[in-house]
Specification:
About 55% of the residues lie in helices and about 10% in strands. The chain is mainly alpha-helical. The chain has one domain (about 5-135): Sufe protein. Chain: A, CATH 3.90.1010. This is SufE family protein.
Length: about 140
C-alpha cells in the first residue's frame, strides 16, 4: 500500500470525531510501512533523541531522497508514516521547503502525543533535514 499524501492525511484525520480514532488511523498508516530487515537495524541508522528505537536509512535516487524507516513502537511507526508522507521521494529542496511545523499544526498532533514522543518526532525531522541539506551541497 502506498502512503497517502500529507494533505490526504490531514483531510482523513479531520474526518474522525475523536483522537482514539485518529490514533488508530495513524497506527494503521504505520503498519503500511514495509519496515527494515533486521540486518539494516544498525547503530549507524538509529536516530538519536528518540525514546523508542527508530532506524532511518536514506538513499538518493535520481535526485530524490528515499527513506526506509522502522521503529520498535507501534505509535512511533505511525508517526514515521506521517513524516514519510511529507518527505519520502522528494528532492532535497522540496524537503527543506516543506513547512513541517504547519503540517504538524494542521494534524493537531503535538497536543496529543507525549512530550518525549514530540522530541523524538523533532529528532527524526532534524535528521531528515540534515540529510537534505547535505544532499544539496
Amino acid at each position: 500500500m502506498q502512503l497517502p499524501s500529507s494533505q490526504e492525511i490531514i483531510d482523513d484525520l479531520a474526518f474522525f470525531d475523536d483522537w482514539e480514532q485518529r490514533y488508530q488511523y495513524i497506527i494503521d498508516l504505520g503498519k503500511a510501512l514495509p519496515g527494515l530487515p533486521e540486518e539494516a537495524r544498525t547503530p549507524d541508522c538509529l536516530v538519536k533523541g528518540c525514546q523508542s528505537q527508530v532506524w532511518l536509512v536514506a538513499r538518493n535516487h535520481d535526485g530524490r531522497l528515499q527513506f526506509d524507516v522502522d521503529s520498535d513502537a507501534v505509535i512511533v511507526q505511525g508517526l514515521l508514516a506521517l513524516v514519510m508522507a511529507a518527505y519520502n521521494d522528494k528532492t532535497p529542496k522540496q524537503i527543506l521547503d516543506f513547512d513541517i511545523d504547519q503540517y504538524f499544526q494542521e494534524l493537531d498532533l503535538e497536543r496529543h502525543i507525549t512530550p518525549t514522543r514530540g522530541n523524538g518526532l523533532r529528532a527524526i525531522v532534524a535528521k531528515i533535514n540534515g540529510l537534505a541539506r547535505n544532499a544539496v551541497h
